[in-house]
Model the fold of this input.
Amino acid sequence: MGVRMAPVMPDRRGEILAPWHDDGVTAPGEGAYGARRRCQGAHTIRCVDVLSGRTAPVRLAPAVRGPSAGAMCGQCTEAIGAQMAASSEGHSRLRRIGAATAGVALLVSGALVAGGLPGAATSAPQQVIAGVARAGSSPLPASRVVLYVGGSAGTVRLGAAWTGADGRFRIRYPRPRGIGILYVIASGTSHPAGAAVQLLGVAGTVQRPARAVTLNELTTVGAAYALDQFAAGARIGGKSPGLENAAATAANLVNPRTGRYGAVVASAPNGSATRTLRTFADLADIVGGCTRGGPGTCARLFAAARPPDGRPPATTLEAVLDIARNPVHNAARIFGLPKASDYGPRLSVAPTAWVLSLIYTAGGFNGPGRMAFDSLGNVWVTNNFQPPYPSTIAGLGLISLGPTGVPINGSPVTGGGLQGAWWGIAIDQHNRIWTANYTGADPADFTSPSFIGGDTVSEFNDAGIPVSPTGSTNGGLRAPQGVAVDRQGNVWIANHVGNSVTEYPHGNPAAAKVFTSPTLKLPFAIAIDARGNKWIDDNAISASVGGVTRIDASGDVHPAIHGRGLISPQGMAVDQLGNVWVANLGSNSVTEINANGTINARSPIRARSLIGPWSVAVDGNGNIWVASFLGETVTELCGANRTSCPPGVRTGAVISPTARGFNNGGLEHLTAVQIDESGNVWVANNWTTLSPPSGGNGLVEFIGMAAPVRTPLIGPPQRP
Done:
């Protein structure tokens, strides 16, 4: 603003002129207290409205001596914040928009500088959001609270206020247009932690704004983890629907209105059944060690949270984001930091990684095989068996969940010839859901020599309504498993017992084509690269053999690829560079096949946490996620693009905890892993026990763990 700033000093009447700035940022070298000063006696702060000349006096009690802008005259700044909050209704023309980051009043030519809020039209209809900022159970006074709207175009500030002595604030703002989320950030305080404190809370969406919000350590951790993939410090924005779905997921962790635990994380099948609630509470109390402490505890937090290749955070919000993005780094050191005692229950030992995961079991689950996401972020899941658990009768339902795990479309969806869909599911460009009915009505066990399986594929629209009453039988379907859709809208189906692959050109069963080869035996999964190559793994569920067959864009079937760990290959995924990553159930490994069809020399890739791996997914950065069936583990590997991996980590190396991967409990025998547009990693609990076989229960979501992927997934993963 080009104004000269000077320390607050009493005038001849014993009063202090306390003007406020519109951006809250001081010019370099100005506005900060370099010398120790004392607020002596009882002074009055007088805010001056330059438009009317009216003043708003605030009488202050004596304050203690302090060494800097953040610590000096703490009672003065607390009273300033209280006056700002208390007078927001009665002094509508008094502009009190921001102070220096430390929350200390500054003299600017003896008058208040008025300013506007960027992106806010004064003629627009006004709305109000009220709230409270707390450090644990204590109010957070003299904190600058800013309301933002974030969306695909970036972030715009809508309004600002100061918290009073009770931590409360009230912001009047013009309602924005378009699509986006609203969020609130409280920065600084008169508490000893000063400018290190920064709290975050979700305040609804543009369409459904919240009227009240609480900011504390729980809301900061919950919102930061959910919005991790969209945040750059205080700037939060991104494309729809991933951003809105991420904000909604935050409410599963913490109630944005009350600042207490969300119903999902606090109750079964989560709650005391997993470590997530305790991990969440511990991390919030570690943040509280700073907000309730002082510069020393904050410095220790920032040093421990510092990324392996970056600068240390400067605020509590930045620290939480850094921990969420590097959950394994310094995990034990972070656990040993000073903690507040505001939240619980607590962990008894240090976690191997600071991850938050949730289990979803509502909707009719019994043996979920694989999931797929539509363009809205809704989750569609095959169900091996017919509920209730532990029935092993062929499943007749398709699970349909909203992005936050809530059943929709009357889940489970039935009809359309759906019967015994195990692993095969894909969603096309029109949000049509295709499922492969592996067992069908065949009464024989799938391990029996007499098993022939089902002979249909079912198709549903995005409302869960079957497209045909009995499904499609075209194309010689026999015990179909993997399903994939290419960029031209062609649907590809692997016939596990039929030793063939069926194509429905542009999703038209009547035009079905069948592909066979002497080496195409017991095909299971299909992955399609950007050039239109179809990669199909052979001899799945075999103890000694396995391979991968390629059907190129012209329809030629190439000889199978063998060796380097390819034993009972199950799930596959193609990365952005055209490499194919294969999970080998039979060799406890992952095989990387180069885009040209040769096996990469680093294969087979082995790790302690790869124990009977079944499924593979590639995130938006190219990192590899593997779900293990036998070991009940989730492993992250560095992909071919090493720029998104920790420093010094090579392609194929493990990023997750080496022994057991990412695991907060609740994991069963996993057959699928997929990534949504919010960056959440989802895995399917397929079986609970292997002998006797019993269907698994639900999906597990690791919140904000991966780079988002555009959905529905067609071809190599793309960033939204």
In short: The chain is about 10% helix and 25% strand. Residues 611 and 687 are 15 Å apart (CA to CA). The helical segments are 74-86, 217-226, 242-253, 263-266, 276-291, 295-305, 316-325, 331-335. Confidence is low (pLDDT under 50) at residues 1-56, 58-123.
